[in-house]
Specification:
It comes from Novosphingobium clariflavum. Keywords: Transferase. InterPro entries: CoA-transferase_III_domain, CoA-Trfase_fam_III, CoA-Trfase_III_dom3_sf, CoA-Trfase_III_dom_1_sf. By secondary structure, the chain is α/β, with parallel strands linked by helices. 38% of the residues lie in helices and 16% in strands. It is built from 17 helices and 13 strands. A hairpin with a 3-residue loop joins strand 12 and strand 13. Helix 1 crosses helix 7, helix 6 packs across helix 8 and helix 7 crosses helix 8. The longest helix has 24 residues. The radius of gyration is 25 Å and the shape is elongated.
């Protein structure tokens, strides 16, 4: 990937004013930055985004902030001052998208709600991301990832059958905002090409997790009861899950009858393919313990490397269970350039996770590093708002910008 490639991405020319902080909102604006949008991250004086203070730190920079703010530009503006509010309104008038993830009502109290901003810029796409959405009895309740996992039903499904529910390892309750927010924004930008008008988008993180229940929700509709926890296994597919290996374990997934026959050959039990006890999905599900024991008897006598070779040869869906550092360094991640090096203003060269969406024959440059606090304040004020150096200096002396 050439860092000299000039193509920013399909959203080149789209400007985003970003009032987000912590995770759900920054994940959404991160996706837009990855696609080539110019993102102006509005941060308060002092500490900026709260995640700048989340340990562990390196030379004053937080791992958390670095993770979800690549490719953005930081401008420090005091929203408690009238001059600061006037600046961001002027900036919003020159942008295509606004993203915010304050509690419902906060932006209205600041005079920056959708109606106020739409009066200035009727073409603006305004995306509000919150725990429960802009309506409903819980709209004003604070929420965090684990709270949303619990309220959506997702937490009840995760964990071993005989234990307590277990939080998902990645904060999907928050990150769903980074998925649904950009989907809504991109569709509204497409609509604006036809109508010339912007739109308000209401993204609820709880709605997003409920939407991700997928077939689990449909199973509850079918049965009229809660699906039970099955740990790393599947409620209806067998064998599917984690199996013991010599000095480790391995994942095996059997989704279709064709994969069942491949597994039988791989574990040197081809006769099981036609065994009337296990020859349908329903029979294998009902005989879960027996089937799992048969597979485990084969896997537990072999190393993970041996099993990977065997299941690869038989085209069985499988995987070794990699740690995060090993996953980031694996050959597939390297081939896809999922880890790249970028130049940070204070840390120097640092590794970052690369954009997850690629465009064939149109590579984008390596993302710029997450900005230090206020790194682009002068640039944005001068180049976007056309303010003179004298005016910028005046605003800085007054504490309006930093």
């Amino acid at each position: 990937m050439s860092s000299e490639t000039p193509w920013a991405g399909p959203l080149a020319g789209v400007r985003v004013i970003d009032f987000t902080r912590v995770l759900a909102g920054p994940a959404a604006s991160l996706a837009l930055a990855d696609l080539g949008a110019e993102v102006f991250k509005i941060e308060p004086p002092g500490t900026g985004d709260e995640t700048r203070t989340f340990p562990p730190m390196r030379e004053g920079e937080s791992h958390y902030y670095l993770a979800v703010n690549r490719g953005k530009k930081s401008i420090v503006v005091d929203l408690k001052s009238e001059e600061g509010l006037a600046l961001v309104r002027d900036l919003a008038a020159r942008c295509d998208v606004l993203v915010e993830n304050y509690r419902p009502g906060v932006m209205d109290r600041l005079g920056l709600g959708y109606e106020a901003i739409a009066a200035i810029n009727p073409r603006l796409i305004y995306c509000s991301i919150s725990g429960y959405g802009q309506t409903g009895p819980l709209r004003d309740r604070p929420s965090f990832d684990i709270v949303l996992q619990a309220m959506s039903g997702a937490l009840s499904m995760n964990g071993e059958p005989d234990g307590l529910p277990t939080k998902l390892g990645i904060p999907l309750g928050d990150l769903v905002g980074g998925i649904n927010g950009p989907i809504g924004i991109l569709s509204a930008l497409y609509e604006r090409e036809r109508t010339g008008k912007g739109r308000h988008i209401d993204v609820s993180l709880m709605d997003g997790l409920i939407g991700m229940l997928g077939y689990i929700a449909q199973l509850a509709f079918f049965n009229g009861s809660d699906p039970t926890r099955v740990g790393s296994q599947h409620p209806n597919l067998v064998p599917y899950g984690i199996f013991p290996a010599r000095e480790g374990s391995i994942v095996i997934a059997c989704l279709t009858p064709g994969f069942w026959s491949r597994i039988c050959r791989a574990i040197e039990r081809p006769e099981l393919t036609e065994d009337p006890r296990y020859d349908t999905l329903e029979k294998r599900r009902d005989a879960r313990a027996e089937v799992n024991a048969i597979v485990a008897a084969f896997t537990e006598r072999r190393s993970v490397d041996e099993l990977v070779a065997i299941f690869t040869a038989h085209e069985v869906p499988h995987a070794p269970i990699l740690g995060v550092t090993e996953a980031l360094a694996q050959p597939q991640a390297a081939a896809r350039e999922m880890v790249v090096e970028t130049q940070h203003k204070t840390l120097g060269p640092i590794p970052i996770v690369n954009r997850p969406i690629r465009f064939t024959d149109a590579p984008q440059p390596v993302p710029s590093a997450p900005p230090v606090l206020g790194e682009h304040t002068d640039t944005i004020l001068e180049e976007v708002l056309d303010l003179s150096p004298e005016r910028i200096a005046q605003l800085r002396r007054a504490g309006v910008v930093a």
